[in-house]
Task: structure prediction
Amino acid sequence: MKVKVLSRNPDRYSRETSLDIHKLPRNYDPALHPFEAQREYTRALNAVKLERVFAKPFLASLDGHSDMVALLQKHPTQLSSLFSAAADGVIKQWNIPLRTCTRTIQGHEGYVRGMTFTPDGETLISVGDDKNIRFWDVNPLLNSPEATTEAVVAKHSIITKYVVAGVSHHAKKPLFATCGDSCLLWEGERNEPIHKYDWGVDTLSAIKFNPTQTNVLGACANDRSIILYDIRGGSPIRKAVLGLRSNAIAWNPMEPFVFVVANEDYNSYMFDMRRLKKPLNIFMDHVSAVIDVDFSPTGKEIVTGSYDKTIRIFEVEKGRSREVYHTKRMQRLTSVLWTMDNKYIISGSDEMNIRLWKARAWEKLGVMRTRERDAMNYNEALKEKFAHFPQVKRISRHRQVPKHVYQAKKELVTIKDSKKRKEGNRRAHTKPGTVPFVPERQKTILSEQE
Amino acid sequence: MSDDEFAEDDGLYDEDGLLKDEGDFRDKSNLINSVHKIFDIKKKGRGAIRHEAVKDVEEFVAVKRRSGPGSSLNKLLESVKQSGEEKTVDKVSKLVKAPSLKSLKTLETPLEKPQALKAKRTVLYENAKRDLSRFNPIVYHNRVADQLVYPLNAGKKALKLSSTERVADSIPMTPLEEEMARVLYGEEYVKQKKAELEKPKGPSDAEAYALSVEEALNMHSEMARLRAQQSYKMAKAKRQNKIKSKKYHRLLRKEKIRKQLKEFEEMQKKDPEGAMLKLEELNKSRVEERMSLKHRNTSKWAKMHAARAKYNKDSRIALSEQLKISKDLTQKVEESDSDDDDLECDIPHLVKSSLDNPWMLRPEVRDSDKLNVYYSGYKKLWEEINEKKDKERKRQEVQTIKNKQHVKKLGDEFQNDNIESEDLLVEDNETDKSGLDPESSAAKSAQERKAEKKKKLRQKQKNNKAKKKIIVPETTTSTTTVVYDNDDPDFTELDLDIMIEEAEDKIKDEAIRKLRKLSKVEKLEKKKSEQQSKRAAKRTKNKSKEMMRGDADEIRDLDVDSAEQLLENVGGETGASLALTSVNGGVGRQINPDKQDTSKVIIDPNNYLKITKKAGGKKAKFDGNGMNKVEFDAFLNNEAASSGEDDDDDDDQRKLIAEAFEDDDVVDEFRLRKEEEIDALKPKDVDLCLPGWGEWGGKGIVPNPKKRKRFLIKAAPLPPRKDAALSHVILNEEVGEKVKEHLVRELPFPFKRVKDYEKTIRAPVGRTWLPEQATKDLVAPRVITRLGAIIEPLDEDVLPKMKGGSLKVPISIKRLARVKKIASK
Result:
């Protein structure tokens, strides 16, 4: 009699070398997997929970300033260097990976209003309340041996007639524009502006060159308007008046006709330059004035810093923030920027500190093994797939916010509701048509002027 | 200046002041010529010389120009001709041509500054917009791309640098590197590199700011283009401002209106909501026009014309035109009712789907269907009746009187239950008819049966009274009959009784046919009953069934009365009897003692339909007395199907099934179960009353009802159940409370149908269910950025280069540039 024995041929299951992948026999017949969707849902829930577990956005704080950080400027070609300016006129250069201050300059007397780089990244141009435009060598140590003097003395400086409130450099040519009393265009280190653009009498508070369509300039005026300029024609080209003043403007680096402004009315507005009638999107969530805004270098997201002591990150096609950053000690934000590699956010605030954050709070930075990355990708895909499921949505949206933000939010909701109710009442008690339904986006722009 | 002055200078005169040779005329003319020549030259020379740049130029020294083109210009032209280039020649010759006096005009004043600036801004903005729109394809591509790897142009840059280039770029800095370079490439190379190193890195300031020739040309042409565009804009603005012609403005306005209309039409297609808004706006403008006194002939102008109108035809016309305009503008736009038609379209579809299922059949639907059939039947009848009308009038009168008597008897019952009364009427009418009919053999038996029916009726009424008190007024509108003839509008009087007769005949025929069918079934049953005698015995208990069998037997010899009986059994449920009852009801009203027999009935088709529907709806309620529900339904279905050709196998089958389950009252059982279920789920009141609390008492205390009421917390009523309208379903609403919080409540944005969304959720993406590569493709991230890689903003270089010639540079300037280039070399 022959007895059948259970036998296993090692060839069937063992790897030839340790580098081979394990053989995993699988049957993909869907009939054998009746609970695919359910299992994936569970996985998605776990993924979103893990995301929250790993969300630790705060990386570092760079301290050294002895007055509020007025503004930050990223270097156009070097990821590691960052320039910050304080309200007392001190400009500091930072090495981000080392988290150290590499250079300190007494840039101006009083508030530093703006900084910008020449396209080659060799020169920093700064403007301040002392009516000076100053040119600084960015890497004095490299260019000359006598670094000590070069490092603290400006290459060149121009004294202007009026106070300058902001500066922005052309992306290619040696031109830069300043704002203040009016928009001035300067060339290189010449002492006189080559052009003056005027429209109306009010002053301008922020200005930014379009990085792609390099001849276009956007500026925010104190009379609540946004003004666009074209330096080829030597004239302003269009003006749009909003409900409240805009504090900052940023151009989308990947979509040259899109820009976003940070507004005093707690919102940021994204516009298509060609259609200023109504904004493309309104980014709501802040509970106080938005002070600064910057686009991610991919043009898919924006970061805003607000007077309500929080930083928020918005996806461009959504109206509500996907992330809110805050710490107990961070005060009013004055400046935010997104680093050029899309991985970090840097913020400067009232209480003299510069903070470094991750752009995606849960992302693992650094080297990842293939399997790890695959697992990450899978988790991301699951989160996206089940994003509309209430539990997934709830977990991924839940954030702790400071008490004052929470209360303010509640108050805002109340205000909004009461306004809505009032409007409804008026609509109900007047002749039909007297109180029309106006979409929120159309309310934004008060007028567009040619 | 005179000739004398010159004479002195030139020494053409002798010392005495006399001419040397007076006689030689020829010489003289020569002399004059030469003098003139000199004169010309002298004049020119004097005028042209101006040594100092002075602000105020003396007018006397101003250059006097010759009126025509000089010969020198012509010479120049010729030289150009020799050099070729016809275009330039043409241009120059055009320039050179003397402008005629007519074409010479004073220059127009420039536009006012704000306007001019506005024109400029508009032009610039349009240009900037156009420039930016060139990025559209790239931007939109990036927006919808499955995956974007930033930096976008990383691959290109790496490709551009070859290895040799990279080597060449490295500059030896340290002494060691220098040594190595010397060994590798030689002394020369090192020197060269050192020189490079010493040279200033970027271009010098002058170089950086200086424009290349091409750049200058581009700039020049660009500026020229801009200026041109600007001037066009300004000219246009000016022209339009200046035009005074009313006709022009009218045309302009009309064009604007036409444009708006066009836009509106487009909008209607694309964005109906927006179109509605626009329509409202238009309406508003109309209202404003109405409000205003425009075009009302109240203006100054109109008054003036009115004064003149008596004598002047033109002003009369103008005034009337004005009024016409006002009329046009204030006329309200009629809205079409096409929407209503669309709404109605859906109904038949619904009916169709539910016809197959006897449980789902809704009585209203059935009734209305049959109603239509009968309605059309009446129409046909109508025409015949018209002819017979005169002949039969007498007979009618007799009948109506008789009817009257019957109705008086049953007056009370009428009031209690509408349905029953109508049934009764049917019967009454028919009995009368049968009484008159000489052929009917079973008149007596009919009378007997009538008595029986009355008994039954009373029973029913008792039941109904217990359930509900419905007092139907005598003039219940459900009894008005409608026959509407479109062809004959004059006709309003209706001979009802004839109609009734005819209708009754029809109905009877149909009923008989049905009974025949039933009898067939009976035969089948009998065969079965032999085997199952017990069941047959049970069946006999069912009264109505028995009756029906009895009827069926009778009907073998086509007895009319039995048909009547059957009809009554069925009650008012079937369409046939329904129509009949409505007709009879009409009679009933006619016979009303207050009214004359010959009273005219005015017919309203809408009313008719509505009412009968209502009546049908009421009748649809199954009272449980007549027939078994299952049987009844089966019968109904049979009826429904029998409107055309019937006797289907399906019906037989249904009947069989109905027979088989006749004893089990499934419906009632189900109803009870549902009620229990509902009761169990009802929230209970909470009684917080503590008897004896706060009052003297002992055993057997009865709490104060006021107090009890105070402490009774009434439960909030539940929201209406989902199955409230579905008698055949119990929906358990409690199941799935836990699951609910995991379920998606709203369809997410890009999806239009739930089905699609479900599909995406159902499709797995994990490795567990898909091959490795499929998973990788599915979970690939949308955007990939590398840590430490700078992502540059989009560059203009990504745009496809414009083809040569898009920038038009005048040839002359090109040539100039060429010359300059050569010179600089």
Notes: Chain B touches chain A through 64 residues (CB under 8 Å). Chain B has a mean pLDDT of 66.
